[in-house]
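Record 1 of the preview.
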Amino acid sequence: MSITITCQARIMTTFSPKLAIRLNKKYVAEVGNKENIALDIPNNMTLLSYQFLDYPNIKVSNGDHIIIKRNYITLTIRWAYILIYFFFIYFFKKTLPSTSLINTFLGFSIIPIALLPSYRFIKE
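->
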């Protein structure tokens, strides 16, 4: 039983230009940009993921072809957050005290944005 994984995304990671592929939360391989790999799966319904948090994941079975692409919704949300944050700093930072609720909110709002998945799986 095997699956084929094709990466059509430009990989942008901190330490390596490849994504770590995990089957049932266990590291099995790495895939780079424009690269195809074939993996043996242990059973018919296996969870495939690429992060250590096991999110996002997809159920794969024998003979599936999985394509990894950039998640442009996440990219748009991150750029919108950066623009709003710099807009806030440029226009309102001088008028609000540094202990205001909006400063705390903007500081902590980066946490869920950082956890959004950068890539998505497409099953064919």
